[in-house]
Amino acid sequence: MDILVSAHSGLRYIALLLLVIAVVNAIGNKTKGEYLKKDKMINLFTMITMHIQLLIGLVLYINFWISKVPAGAAMKMPFRFYTVEHIFMMIIAIALITIGRKKAEKEGLAGFNKHRLIRNFYGLALIIIFFAIPWPFLREGIGAGWF
Length: 147
Known about the structure:
Layout: H1 2-28, H2 37-68, H3 79-104, H4 111-132
């Protein structure tokens, strides 16, 4: 189980980097109007990485939090953050990424509109994810570290 926790914690940096790259790419290309294969691949790899993170997180959630957290303690800190807030915000953010990419891949949309959709959906997801991650500087006392 420790390997999954390490993988989930380490992969967050790759996922965040890809998400930032996708948002910056969408902002930088909004005036050019072209939606190239490069743009499509950045958005796709970002979405895939986020889905892998979700799957690892769900395995951790099921194997650890549901079986190890006492029933009455689930809504007390630090458990509440992991059992409710973290997973809820992450699922919403990953749903936004998936919906944004699906809308951007629609045929007939101009490149500008595709970049705008990615910027809006991925950007909102980035903000949500930033606050959902148990950063040591944001969440004191919940046992979170940098890795």
